Amino acid sequence: MSNFLNNQNWRYATKKFDATKKISTEDLNTLKEAIRMSSSSYGLQPYKVIIVENPELRAQLQPAAWGQLQIVEASHLFVFANDTNLGDDAIDEYLNTISITRETPIEALAGYGDFMKSKISTLEPAIKNVWASKQTYLALGNLLNAAAELKIDVTPMEGFVPAQVNEILGLDKLHLNASLIATVGYRHEEDATQFYKKVRKSQEDLFITL
């Protein structure tokens, strides 16, 4: 656990990436697997993760992300996009995956499926989309922790215009909405932010024990 806490103290929101350093295929696959294994409500994972490597596409995205340099300087750009068309079909597909993975008769999962549908499919679209977007933050947490263990920097970003990102990446056609962005790579030696002491609330201020 001490290594985990040391990694948390090491990581920070990198402001300047070293554009010459690229994440290896092996490490990238590790990060992808960490995201894939992330916790999610009901296990549904109502999102996609778009990994943008194309430099021209990233240059188009930069203005939509308030001009932030990390968008073009980082090794990789991850766009977490929640499903905007989540309904019974997605739940049925998930149940089928459970059935195959666990070698369980699909009929035995009918009750669980009906329960999920009663809680999710009945939600107003706006509320459902907010719920789905929150799931992307759980996946981001796994990315942050796995990357820190590999000494790879990640900067989570909410500073962008979702509608513009959706248009550039064609997400609307896929019934997806950009929920958050994470730039991933290696800190530049000139990034002064890496030397700042981490500022967090004390345990006394943060926790309430009842």
Automatic annotation (TrEMBL):
Single GO molecular-function term? Answer: oxidoreductase activity
Q: Which domain of life is it from?
A: Bacteria
Instruction: List the protein's name.
Output: NAD(P)H-dependent oxidoreductase
Q: Which UniProt keywords apply?
A: Flavoprotein, FMN, NADP, Oxidoreductase
The keyword Isomerase belongs to this UniProt entry's keyword annotation: no
Instruction: Describe the family membership recorded for this protein in Swiss-Prot or TrEMBL.
Output: Belongs to the nitroreductase family.
What the entry lists under InterPro entries is as follows: NfsB-like (IPR033878), Nitroreductase (IPR029479), Nitroreductase-like (IPR000415)
**Domain Nitroreductase span(s) in chain numbering:** 10-186
Pfam families (UniProt xref): Nitroreductase (PF00881)
